[in-house]
Each structure stands twice: as C-alpha cells, then as structure tokens.
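Standup notes
- DV: blocked on the single-chain target, sequence here:
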Amino acid sequence: MKVLPPNHLLKACERPVMDVVTNADLLRFGIVMNNALVMCNLDKKALQQWLLIQQH
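- DV (later): unblocked, structure below
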C-alpha cells in the first residue's frame, strides 16, 4: 500500500499579488512576500516531519 503525504501539504504555495504604486506599497509587498515564503517553508518542514514519521 502506497502512503502519500497529507493533501494540505502538497498544495502549491500561493504567490501574493499586490498593486505597488508607492514606496510604502513596496515595503508592504516585501513583508507579504516574506510571510508567504515563511509559510511555504513551514509546509515543507511539515512534509519532512511526516516523512520521518513514515520511516519509523
């Protein structure tokens, strides 16, 4: 029987979209992009942990 990781961990990471007009918008967009990257990496970490559990 093939065991696959949980579906929610396989979803593509969404790329934030914003209208950037001002320098303040650019700063906000940088923060939003960083947050998206952090959340995506948390999913990858969860996949690593899932794999470790499956191997034991």
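- Follow-up: The CA atoms of residues 13 and 40 lie 6 Å apart.
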